[in-house]
Amino acid sequence: MDIVLLFPGQGSQKVGMGRDLHGAFPEARAAFDAVDAAVTAPLGTLMFEGPADELTRTLNAQPALLAHSAAAWAVLRPRLAGRVVAAAGHSLGEFSAYHAAGSLGLADAARIVRRRGELMYEAGVARPGAMAAILGVLDQPLDALCAQASAERGLVVPANFNSDEQVVVSGEVAGVERVMELAKGAGAKRCLPLPVSGAFHSPLMAPATEGLAAALEAAHWAPAQFPVWANVNAEAVTDPARARALLREQLTATVQWTAVMRALAAAHPAALFVELGSGSVLAGLARRLAPGVRTATCGTVPEVEALLALAESSATEGG
Both 28 and 167 in a single domain? Predict the structure, then answer.
């Protein structure tokens, strides 16, 4: 049984995430402790007990999601690492993927994503922006609607191509408001403003790129033990220098998640796609984008146990 790992991004955090893993597995506790030590903050307590508004802050949500994914992987790795053929992560989750692939140690990954969250927040304060989800199939290209809104009101770009019926736009507040109006006229079912602190994955994040590049360069990197499929161009990456360049570019570029998932499904049609960490958003998107793939979620003790049992059964059957 081949496995493709998927790692969630910001928005999947919730109070209580990872608490049962912490209580059940020493490997998970060690991962949570390592992240706390790296960011010099009691992040585990915040994850397990809240408050939610503090956990949702960008500088906390990003290392918290990394910690949950890393804790689950720490439990699974001894028995499943040899079965993993590829990985991908949505935005912040791409850092979790490189950790799982052996490119980044957990402490380095935690420090990078903590700094990334700080830089993204600071960029949002310096140049306020907004994001919105556009749901439904449009009768006009979203790129064209964004170009029109940018010319009329303010800069706005596609930020996340999550599925054929879910695209997130990002940019200046007036531009985002205008593109929501245009999208409704083009057939969108709903247009939902998102509760974020800045215009992520847009040119408004440009001031954060230099600081992120410095954090990436300060870390120790190794070649990935299995390919990580990049958000920016939906290509498989194992080279550390290429990984750093794409992670820097990712701050201001569109997340091409639709292309990533379809490329992975084409490359590994028989694999089990496992979302590792908090939530089930990516598993759901995988089923929509590639209806033939098998999916699982793995962020709680019962889910970990179920996946290990499935892997054992598959090994016994020779699959």
Answer: no
Q: What is the DSSP string of 30-54?
A: HHHHHHHHHHTS-HHHHHHH--HHH
Asked about 90 being catalytic, the answer comes back as no
Catalytic residue among 69, 91, 96, 197: 91
- pLDDT tens readout for residues 30-66: 999 999 999 998 999 999 999 999 999 999 999 999 9
Percentage of residues of the chain with pLDDT beyond 90: 95
Per the CB < 8 A criterion, the answer to whether 278 and 65 are in contact is: yes
CATH number of the domain residue 236 falls in: 3.40.366.10
- Among residues 90, 150, 201, 202, the one annotated as catalytic is 201
User: For residue 139, what is the domain's CATH number?
Assistant: 3.30.70.250
Q: Do 185 and 109 share a structural domain?
A: no
Q: Do 175 and 312 fall into the same domain?
A: no
Q: Based on the domain organization, do 89 and 211 belong to the same domain?
A: yes
Residues 117, 23, single domain; the answer is yes
66 and 175 in a single domain? The answer is no
- The pLDDT tens digits for 203-240 are 999 999 999 999 999 999 999 999 999 999 999 999 99
Task: Determine if the pTM surpasses 0.90.
Answer: yes
91 is catalytic: yes
Q: How confident is the model at residue 317 (pLDDT cuts 50, 70, 90)?
A: low
- pLDDT score recorded for residue 230: 98
pLDDT band (50, 70, 90) for residue 311: confident
Domain membership of residue 27 as a residue range: 3-124+204-317
CA–CA dist 263, 4 (Å, integer): 12
Q: Is 114 in the same domain as 240?
A: yes
Task: Tell me if 116 sits within 8 A of 235, measured CB to CB.
Answer: no
10: DSSP letter: T
User: How many CB atoms neighbour CB 12 within 10 A?
Assistant: 24
Tokens 């499904």 belong to residue = 265
316 band by pLDDT with thresholds 50, 70 and 90: low
Do both 154 and 105 map to the same domain?
Answer: no
